[in-house]
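Audit log entry. Action: structure prediction of a protein-small molecule complex. Ligand: zinc ion. The ligand was supplied as SMILES and no pocket hint was given, so placement is left entirely to the predictor. Protonation state taken as written. Sequence taken verbatim from the request; no trimming, no tag removal. Recorded inputs:
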Amino acid sequence: MTHTDRIPDLLARVDLDALVARHGGREARRTGGRTYFHCPGPGHDDRTPSFDTYQPANGGARRWACRSVCSRGGDAIDLVVWLTGCTKAQAIDQLASEEGMVERPSLVEPPSVAQWCALRGWGPWVASELGLTLVKDKFGRPRVRFPFRFEGGVPYHQDRAIDDAAKVRWLSPTGRQPIAYEAERLRIAHERGHVFILEGVTDVAAIVDVYSAPAAVGIPGVGAWRSSWAPSFKGLVVYVIGDNDEAGGKFRARVTADLQHDARSVCNVHVPKEFKDVADWRAARDPQDFDDELMAAVEAVAPGSVRMAG
Ligand SMILES: [Zn+2]
């Protein structure tokens, strides 16, 4: 609804006499459908009183006029603009608010992070384990923040739109270099001897949903990968799982090539063709079936390989 659309409704609701009084007009008398006030106009020391409100002949909303030095008149909106110096739009907003006509951006509360996780089929522990929080972007729209935690700080983050139809689904801080997502899980990886390298934060979340303390890190796209990270994967059995698209292919190739020397072994685990990525795959399966299928996919490329702990 635009400002203009709601003007007739607004003017019909406003008690103009009360509005004049609120803005400093002192009521003198009521006669013949008119209410006379000592004019609240700036600089008008009105003893007469020469300001009145009246019902116009055309049947519209009540109007006011100062018939003396101010020589002005209008409706309730004009009065607020005149006496407060605000714009017409601001006067409409103020009056609408006073009349209880405030339009709320949305009557539906954004879901909590736990509810948002539940909509993706994830348990509530995903939000706490990954430290997910609800934030608002510069347009006031809610997003779920995935913090990239490292050594007690959060050097990077990605904010996912709550609304799946949002044009910009992910927002990241500009001018900052991404790090690996859940990089601190490399510690778990070195205890277990293996690590899963996934292509996105929701893929890691999907794995965190199914397994307890999984050794899984996320790389937010091939462009984020740094060859200099290779030594961090020294001695590990590495399972690389990229998305089922061209970018995913580049991601797998680049990571695999870079880890050849440092990792104990590197293999590409394939997401079934019908799914875009791990998160998509997980969303279509219950946890037990997903576990069976993922372990079968690992077994297919790395026979005799360890099962996920937990
Ligand atoms: Zn006046």
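Audit: result stored. The pocket of zinc ion is lined by residues 39, 41, 44, 46, 51, 66, 68-70 (CB under 6 Å). The chain has two domains: 4-98, 113-301.
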